[in-house]
Amino acid sequence: MFADATSHQERCLSHQKWFRELPVHLQQLVQSQAFSVRAAKGEVALKAYQPVEGWYGVAQGLVKIASSQGSQQSTFIGLNQGSWFGEGAVLKNEARQYDVVALRDTELVCIPSAVFETLLSESTCFNRFVIDELNRKLGLAMSIIQAGRSGTAQQRLALALSRMFWNQTRTLELSQDELANLAGMARQTANRALQHMEQRGIVRLAMNRITVLDERALLQCVSDATALADPK
Asked: Domain residues for 25?
């Protein structure tokens, strides 16, 4: 373990349960081989269709996973500090199918593919973590497909606040501009929906912070197009 976790990369790893449960020789392998990727706000940190180098975590900042077709961009997921992505590309050894765009100044930590494969073959706790990540993202993908086919802008915003999007984080250090960007809508539309959610006790809003208070009601908003209708 790190004697004094001072860098963003070191802090990110030291806070991961899967990393803390690794035997010492695997911790040392990760520490020696991991490297950082930095991007300023608005930059593409990792471009689509590039050969995969490894499995990535967000050591600092905020990114979105997005796909672009001409001038149209679709956001699949938002990832904040402590989140991980790219396990599918490593497992399939295929080029990345999406852009990773920094919504703030961001630092990513990369676990090279060979190290990722070693962890899979030698660590049960790491396997459990990766399986949980794949399962959660499958559920998110199905919800995104449903929202894209028949959902409203408000449903997309509720999805962007849900556990499927953010795993276990229930207080999001997130501005309304960033949330609107992730949900693919105008800031004014996002603001109106958030105000309605706050009136219903679903969320609490503060400066650059959104706290989910009622998870069940939020999920109802994801599945029910009428749940965010204007209050009477």
From this structure: 8-140
